Amino acid sequence: xxxxxxxxxxxxxxxxxxxxxxxxxxxxxxxxxxxxxxxxxxxxxxxxxxxxxxxxxxxxxxxxxxxxxxxxxxxxxxxxxxxxxxxxxxxxxxxxxxxxxxxxxxxxxxxxxxxxxxxxxxxxxxxxxxxxxxxxxxxxxxxxxxxxxxxxxxxxxxxxxxxxxxxxxxxxxxxxxxx
Length: 179
Ligand SMILES: [Zn+2]
Known about the structure:
Number of strands: 5
Bound molecules: zinc ion
Strand content: 5-15%
Mean pLDDT: 92
Oligomer: single chain
Largest sheet: 3 strands, mixed
Distance between the termini: 39 Å
Low-confidence stretches: 1-6
Number of helices: 6
Structural class: alpha+beta
């Protein structure tokens, strides 16, 4: 670990090899990401209604309806955390590559073309074209929202898959389903 750091991280005893290949600036970002374990987020009625609507529309497999509801839920979470909203696009069948099928993607703000950040999610499995289980879809949405929040809320320069990141993702999922 870099010297002079007093942060207690989730991965202190087992930093991934990847970490040591980062610049010291990127290491600081990584460690900050790993240190934050949750958001101060409590869903309000609007967020709960958006979640219910999304869960119901996913059962129908309606792409336009899923898009509307996924956008509404993401917007409510952003509002609840006092950040600007993030664009969400839902597509049909998940693309596949050698590593498996893609569930979702987050595109950070691109300063070269001034493209705002956005999220892409797929709602059908690659093999059988089944609609993804609603809870899985919501977890994927929270994963990608988590990437967005790394920049928009935590002001990190990059978004890494640290243990802290996954804990934050789980804290959002728990907040939604246990409220
Ligand atoms: Zn990710």
